[in-house]
Every structure is written in C-alpha cells, then in structure tokens.
Write a structure and sequence with these properties.
The chain is α/β, with parallel strands linked by helices and 149 residues long. It has a single domain, classed as Rossmann fold (3-Layer(aba) Sandwich), CATH 3.40.50. The protein is 40% helix and 7% strand. Strands 1-2-3-4 form a four-stranded mixed β-sheet, covered by helices on one side. Belongs to the short-chain dehydrogenases/reductases (SDR) family. InterPro entries: NAD(P)-bd_dom_sf, SDR_fam. It comes from Micrurus spixii.
C-alpha cells in the first residue's frame, strides 16, 4: 500500500530537474512527490502482474496530523485553524481506514495498480496514468539509488 494525496493533481514530472535543483517550491515538490508515488505504484503493479502480490495507492484525505507544524499561522488565527481542523479534517484513525481496507479487505483481493480514497477506487488524471512516464521514472530511480549504472 502506497500513500499519495489528491494534491498529485498539481504535480509535474520534470525529468530535467527531478531533484528540484534548478527551482524549488515546497508545495510543488510535495505535489510532484505524490504524483511520483502514483506512477511508481502503477509501474510496480505492471512489473509484478502474474504474481500473487498486489500494490495499490491511496489518498487518506485531509487528516489532523502534525505535518503542518512548520506552517506559520498568525497567533490570532491559530484558534480558528484548530477549530476548522477539528470540524472538517479526519482523525488519524479515520485517515487510516483506506490503508487498513487495502491491506485486509477481501473485496480488493487481486486488485492492483489502482488509486483509492475513502475505501473506493477513484479515477486518475491522465498524467498519473502515463505508462511511459512511469517506466522512465522507475528506470531513472534505479540509477539514482545505485541499482543500475
């Protein structure tokens, strides 16, 4: 099970600057990494087809975690932000439901390479289903981590 985010929609894979050395924006980098997670999952699913192993990717929704701990929120706005997050964000256990579902449910036995949210399969944008980009990203990653030269 691979965790991504709906924010993948704002990501682009730039093979000329995969490590964001030419330009860096933390929001775009996050979105790019989530798009990469989806492409990785789809390529892994392709590579392990015809085995008994499956792999899927999900977005947990907006979850109350400490991921935003370094976001500067003005002191007077913090109580409002906390109220909004308690009212509209998922708890960590609610955010984990799709992870548990994909890991244990017989309903998804044999299902591989799919994208889920709230325990349901969801459609992806075309850029997240580009098999050529997924393959190229996989191949470059193998070189970057030293598996291939």
């Amino acid at each position: 099970v691979v965790v991504s985010s709906k924010l993948y929609k704002y990501g682009e894979i730039n093979f000329d600057d995969l490590n964001s050395e030419l330009s860096y924006n933390k929001s775009f980098a996050y979105s790019r990494s989530k798009l990469g997670n989806i492409l990785f999952t789809r390529e892994l699913a392709r590579r392990i087809q015809n085995t008994s192993v499956t792999v899927n990717v999900l977005h947990p929704g907006i979850v109350r975690t400490n991921l935003g701990r370094y976001i500067h929120i003005p002191l007077l706005a913090k109580p409002l932000f906390n109220l909004v997050s308690w009212a509209f964000f998922k708890s960590p256990s609610e955010g984990a439901q799709t992870i548990v579902y994909l890991s244990t449910s017989p309903e998804v036995e044999g299902v591989s390479g799919k994208y889920f949210g709230d325990c349901k399969e969801e459609q992806l944008l075309p850029k997240a289903t580009d098999d050529l980009v997924a393959r190229k990203l996989w191949d470059i990653s193998e070189v970057m981590v030293g598996l291939l030269k």
